[in-house]
Design goal:
- This protein is an all-alpha fold and 179 residues long.
- The chain is built from five helices and no strands.
- Helix content is 67%, strand content 0%.
- The protein has a domain of 106 residues.
Length: 179
């Protein structure tokens, strides 16, 4: 029994010089929860605005564009929820006022206003995804940001061109018949 104790004592002396290092896994960390929350809010607003514009517009090209934007916003929403669940992130429900009833008396063309608001939300999302792409060390969120940026930049350019056309299109006026 004494020999066993001596043997164990000798073994512990050999391992005293070993230093232990902790290797922390950094791939899953460094997700800015505030950015994720802002992205979710902006995404919800963009979906709501595109739905509203869709119901108020009759131009076929505009309808196609708005449907494309809404579809891609829904895809972003779905992927954001999946990534959030995978990374154990809880996204709070949006608290902002979802009512789109604006004081239209100060705006000459309400359609321009909603296009402008949608363009603003797309800009916000582009900025948020740029920040996520740069700051996150999570490869899933980085790839999500890169894919979403491609869609958003494309939609933003098309929407901006369409908004410019709406802005400079003269209103059709009906001429009164003169007798």
């Amino acid at each position: 029994m004494i020999s066993t104790v001596l043997l164990c004592t000798n073994l512990t002396k050999e391992y005293l010089n070993i230093t232990f290092e902790k290797n922390y896994r950094t791939t899953g960390s460094a997700i800015n929860f505030n950015l994720i929350n802002q992205l979710n809010k902006s995404n919800q607003k963009a979906i709501e605005l595109s739905t509203y514009i869709y119901t108020k517009t009759t131009d076929l090209n505009t309808l196609q564009l708005i449907l494309k934007i809404k579809k891609e916003q829904k895809e972003i929403e779905t992927e954001l929820k999946q990534l959030s669940e995978k990374n154990l992130i809880i996204i709070p429900n949006s608290i902002y006022n979802k009512s789109l009833k604006l004081d239209s008396s100060s705006f000459k063309n309400i359609k321009k206003l909603y296009f402008n608001l949608l363009e603003t939300e797309l800009n916000k999302q582009i900025n948020i995804f740029d920040s996520i792409k740069i700051s996150t060390r999570n490869p899933d969120f980085k790839q999500f940001a890169i894919r979403s940026l491609a869609k958003l930049n494309s939609n933003h350019k098309i929407l901006e061109a369409r908004y410019t056309l709406i802005q400079f299109t003269p209103k059709t006026s009906f001429c009164k018949k003169s007798f």
